[in-house]
Structures
1.
Amino acid sequence: MAKLKILIVDDERPTREAMSRVLSENYECILAPDAEGAMNAIRENPDLALMISDVRMPGEDGISLVKRAKAANPSLACILLTAYGTVDLAVEAMKDGADDFLTKPITDLDQLELRVAKAIKTAKLEKEVATLKEKLAGELETFTGKSPAMEKVYQMIRKVAPTNATVLIEGPSGSGKELAARAIHNLSRRAKGPFIALECSAFEGELLKSELFGYVAGTFTGALKEGKAGCFEAANGGTLFLDEIGEIDMATQIALLRTLETRKVRRLGDAMERAVDFRLIAATNRDLAKMVASGDFREDLYYRLNVIDLKTPALKDHKEDIALLVSRFLKEFSAQNGGLVTGIDSRAIKALEDYSWPGNVRQLRNIVEKMVVLSSGGKLTLEDIPVEILQGEETVAAENTDAAPAPTQSLSLADAERTKILSVLASVGGNKTKAAEMLGISRRTIQRKMNEWNVQ
């Protein structure tokens, strides 16, 4: 392993050579007699870890040299030496970027090595923090919003990302749960590893288990001859994101719990277990605590998942962010469609803010895209907003179903649920996926309800 490079700057040859002899066992030492020689060495060695410089030298002094050295290499650690060690000089040196300050002559050589190691470690940590802050700022740009509700989301992501804790993200459909999961992964120590996402509601029973845990050849009809690794194995060294975790059946819950406890997976049809290194992030738009109380979700699995609870808010709970979101989406879709749309007027923004947005940010994004595509260009106005948004979803639902009762009619909870689901389905032309997004439930739930009602 290559040694870290350090630069020793002193106009007294015996001094710099003496320090080099002490430090060369652990570091590659480069020597310079003055500031100009030091700057040449810094330019020629961008991987320098540390500079030790005398303060008083002919020509440019050490304090001025530190300023120039830090400008050329901000991550360079700097220690100043002086035979005139005063508190005032030490304070001045620290203000100008020095990481430490030692008094000549140096008689404690062990102390010199300790101070060098400490300065290098401190500079490395500061560099890592600065890099993380830049990465964090860039990652959180995927979100838009300055409301208190969104600030809570950002704060939680910042706290949990560097850890390896399991995270449960709760929030309605379309509120950015997968965005939050990806941000946590990208800001974690696993960022270079894979991010594997699985929509649990898209699979049922054994098919879901085969996706999660994989299978060996011949396990079931249609199985690949060579078998297949599951999502847990695919996420080895990275993060597994299980969306709509509330939709998994009891048998899969038991298998998932075992994997979380043992950190091992057993492919379907296999007797052998494989160790896996993964971080789990789960998400749901359902109230898992209520599902536990009703017996629909295992309590022990719930507590395994809910180590860290992060909630993504419904758009109706941070409407102050709608103008920012619309501005972002306008730029995105205008650029994709010829750049003809230049903005949106205040009356149109007010109308969007007055809507309840059952499909949350995803629905708003789709509406803005629709407005941009159908617009003839220029600034969007009230006339560009779809009529269903201006009238509100309840009115639209009533207009699109014969089953909708008069507003004054009293409904049982079951009847109200049936009416609402069928109304929203009618408003989107029977598209169960879109209806599920607007209602904040899974597509599988809609299909199950329709089967119960004997509705096709």
2.
Amino acid sequence: MKPIALIDDDADIRQLLSQYMAKQGMEVVAFEDGEGFLNTAADQYCLAILDIGLPGIDGLDVCRRLRKDSNLPVIMLTAASDDLDRILGLELGADDYMGKPFNPRELLARVKALLRRSELNPTSQSAEDGISINNQLRTAHINHQPLTLTGAEFDLLCILAERQGDIVSKDVISQSLHGRSTSPFDRAIDTTVSRLRSKLTPFASDPIQNVRGKGYVLVIPCH
């Protein structure tokens, strides 16, 4: 397996996670700033753990630059009270987040969940009109036009496409994406749905419908 990129200016966290992940059979390449990470090729890593509060280029800007040409799965580390930073991180393309301080075991669980989603069994379908998904290449097209999606957006599209035309609850989506149920004030799912909807809207009016109190419905045909 490719190594995990860990970008955090806290030397203690870099040491702790590097040692903990190594015990779990995972290699970690650690960076103390965003510049060092961005100067390497993203495709040499399987996942990035990215701290928002970095010196120089902060984690949000690192995520923004990364998403210009990479769908590398990203877990952002944020101060527990920084709701705005968490929302901004998700809007910029992060796949998950954890507040500091955190339990390394929970972080490991989220890393494994993200890696499982990025290693889906290969299935490929083609479309006349509508959405086609290639899970092996992690690509999606709508009406033969490629969609530029983040990892979380692609996974959400797969979840909705598997149940196309049916209501999918936020809890089902959260369990599939993050391995946990939603909380009353958790906006992560809403944010990811909003991002995906905005990318589908040029091709269809109201492509993902919000059924109040129940969940979401993908109304575009999937083939």
3.
Amino acid sequence: MQATPLAVFEQIAACYPEREAIHVAGHSESFDTLSRRAAAMARMFSAEGVEPGRHVLISAPNSVAVAAAVPAIWSLGAIPAFLSPNVLAERRAEVIARLDPGLILTEDVLESAPAPGETILNGAAKASEIGSVVFTSGSTGVPKGVEQKATTLLDGARRVAAYQGYAEEERILCPVPWSHDYGWGQLLSCLTLGKTLVLPETQSAAAVCEAIGSARPTLVAGVPSFFANLLFGVSDIARTDIGSIRRLTSTGSRFSPELLEAVGETFPKATAWLNYGLTETFRTACLTPALQAEAPESIGRAIPSVTVAACAPDGRLLAPEEEGELVHFGPGMFHGYFADAERSTSARRRAGENGHALPEDAMGVATGDLGVIDGAGRIHLTGRMDRQIKSLDVGINLDEVEKALRGSGLLTNVAVISEPHRLLGNKIIAHCVVKPGTEPRDVKRFAKREMTKYLQPREFVITEALPTTAAGKIDYRALGRKTG
């Protein structure tokens, strides 16, 4: 019988009852107490009508209650589905309509959750094949629900811990929301590996520094924009005792050389493991400490058991040094997009005849990233298949930003570009031709009122006309030179 995340959590709670599971704002919750809290919540969810196979939508900030809710949901044979509480109301409503959850857990609902009971969790219901659904941010259209099998979640957590060398009693500080796949990965490390999860009281740099000093984490897991804000923004990290930290991990966009250097200077006794992967692939590659000295401009090599290949437009897998769309083959691949078989199929690629020792019928997941794999197996990103960027480590399609601004009715033309930014990763810039009688502040007010936070341009450039190419199309390159 295959192990499940729930069975492993129950085993951890039974074998290590006093081990600290969650530490937040001075409050410590053992695995035994977390299991008893989950058991009480399972009874509450069952009374609310949650049945096997149904989804429970979690749209709340990180908390002890959310951590307990996950195994409680699993114990009923139901499926936890994560959606950021910051998603716009319209898109949130669309997700709820499609998902039809048996229960919606918001911060207000969780405040009334029961206290730990007398009994520990006992998952009697048949486990669901699907272990979780993580909805994307909704910054590039209606949020996609990425389904992962329960067995994939457990295997992924174990593989990440193995190749990054987690200690037996690792203490992981996680400021990343659990509605983000990397944050969800850290919660999995707690629930299925028995690691202690340290939660800062808020996501602010001040709260993170306080948590580092008081809770003594051994590992800090964050996205690049978090580390940039901690090291380049206003924070107390220089006055914080960081002696407990041995390891830093990250995923999302690439670290700039400046940020990587700052990490080394601030945390000289810690090693940094810079991961690459999609919500659909769990983890794909890692720029290990050794590779940072060897090829810092790369995203490293594929992690153990994973093959990364470049794919040509006609579907052929390419040889080393040839540019193509990067495709992930091997463990970690998503089960599919919730209620979207067509999109699930379009995201997959068949290996076919290839030089990568892959079976011809092997299926992989297309990343949308263009890249080259050199002769040493190091992966180099060269661009995107679309106009997608990362800002605050959220994937954003610039065409989506343009579409939203055009819908304002305030502009006769608009072009959106991006430029590298120290804290954001990339800054969104909107070049706008406004209609007569429209004030620039009207455009800014529209963006703040109607657009998802991630999509909102950080800079608006009001101009009389946009540059065009010989074919009469917007000349984005000219705009980039003009902005730079």
